[in-house]
Amino acid sequence: MGLFKSKCVRCGTESTRNKVEGLPTCQGCELKLQIEREEARVCPVDGSQMQKKIICNVIVDKCPTCNGHWLDEGELLLLQNAVNSTGNNDFATGFIAGMIIA
Ligand SMILES: [Zn+2]
Ligand SMILES: [Zn+2]
To answer: How many Å apart are CA 54 and CA 57, to the nearest integer?
Structure first.
């Protein structure tokens, strides 16, 4: 990890120490890359193809038909850790608000 922040090569606006494949990439752009690379999921309820949304830096699959939101196990842990580490429910509240709006 470098000491100095570099401009994100993908959006050219954010400064970041984060790197993806050796190129400075901000967290937002890294998430977008992940979304592009993940395969679209199919809703277990109605079989619709789900859309990926970023809510509080977590990728969530949203079904356009039943409005259900689905999290991977790892994403759920990420959410739990964030709530535990902040020691308050602001993150969870923000996340749930994001789900309703998204
Ligand atoms: Zn960026
Ligand atoms: Zn559905």
So the answer is: 6
